[in-house]
Task: inverse folding
C-alpha cells in the first residue's frame, strides 16, 4: 500500500512539473515582443496616444507631417532600428512631403518620429538603411533613440564626385567600400505589409 501511495505521489508530482502551454510559460522575449507590437498597433490604429518630437501627447490621427498633412499609411513593417532587442513599427505615408513615421514603445509610452523618405531607403531586417544625399553621395546608417528624439549614426558614406569613401568615419579605398556595399546589398530586406 505504501508503495502505491509513493508511486501515486510521484505521478502527481511529475504531472504537476510538466511544461504547460499557458501564457505564463511563454518565453519572456515572446511576451515582450507581442506586448510591444500590440502597443504599437494600438497607437497606429488611434486606440492609444503617442508622444511626438515636441513631447506632446496626442492620437496619431492628430499628428501632422512637416507639410501639415494628416497621416495616411501606405505600408508598414516591424524592425529593430536601434538593436535594443525591441522592434519599432515603420510606416510609409502617402503624402506630398514623402515621409516615414516610426513608432517606438518604451516604458508603456509610444513615441512617434518622422523621417524624410530620402533619408530612409532600402531598409534591412537588421535596421540598417541608406540615406540619399544626391545622385553621387549617400550614407549607410542606423538609428538610436532617446525618448522623443532620434539620432542617425553614420556607418559608411560615399561621395563619388570627390572620391571620398568612409567606413566608421575612417577613409577607405573604393574597393573596400564596394565590398561593404555588396555586403549591405546581400542583407535581407524588411517585409512590408500593405495597408
Result:
Amino acid at each position: 500500500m505504501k508503495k502505491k501511495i509513493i508511486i501515486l505521489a510521484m505521478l502527481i508530482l511529475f504531472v504537476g512539473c510538466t511544461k504547460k502551454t499557458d501564457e505564463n510559460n511563454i518565453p519572456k522575449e515572446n511576451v515582450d515582443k507581442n506586448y510591444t507590437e500590440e502597443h504599437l498597433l494600438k497607437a497606429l490604429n488611434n486606440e492609444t496616444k503617442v508622444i511626438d518630437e515636441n513631447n506632446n501627447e496626442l492620437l496619431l490621427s492628430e499628428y501632422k507631417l512637416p507639410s501639415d498633412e494628416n497621416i495616411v499609411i501606405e505600408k508598414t513593417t516591424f524592425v529593430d532600428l536601434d538593436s535594443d532587442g525591441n522592434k519599432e513599427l515603420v510606416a510609409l505615408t502617402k503624402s506630398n512631403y514623402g515621409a516615414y513615421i516610426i513608432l517606438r514603445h518604451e516604458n508603456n509610452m509610444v513615441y512617434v518620429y518622422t523621417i524624410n523618405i530620402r533619408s530612409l531607403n532600402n531598409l534591412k531586417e537588421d535596421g540598417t538603411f541608406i540615406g540619399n544625399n544626391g545622385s553621387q553621395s549617400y550614407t549607410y546608417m542606423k538609428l538610436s533613440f532617446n525618448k522623443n528624439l532620434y539620432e542617425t549614426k553614420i556607418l559608411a558614406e560615399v561621395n563619388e564626385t570627390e572620391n571620398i569613401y568612409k567606413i566608421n568615419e575612417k577613409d577607405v579605398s573604393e574597393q573596400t567600400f564596394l565590398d561593404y556595399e555588396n555586403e549591405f546589398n546581400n542583407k535581407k530586406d524588411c517585409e512590408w505589409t500593405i495597408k
Q: What stands out?
A: The first strand starts at residue 50 and ends at 51.
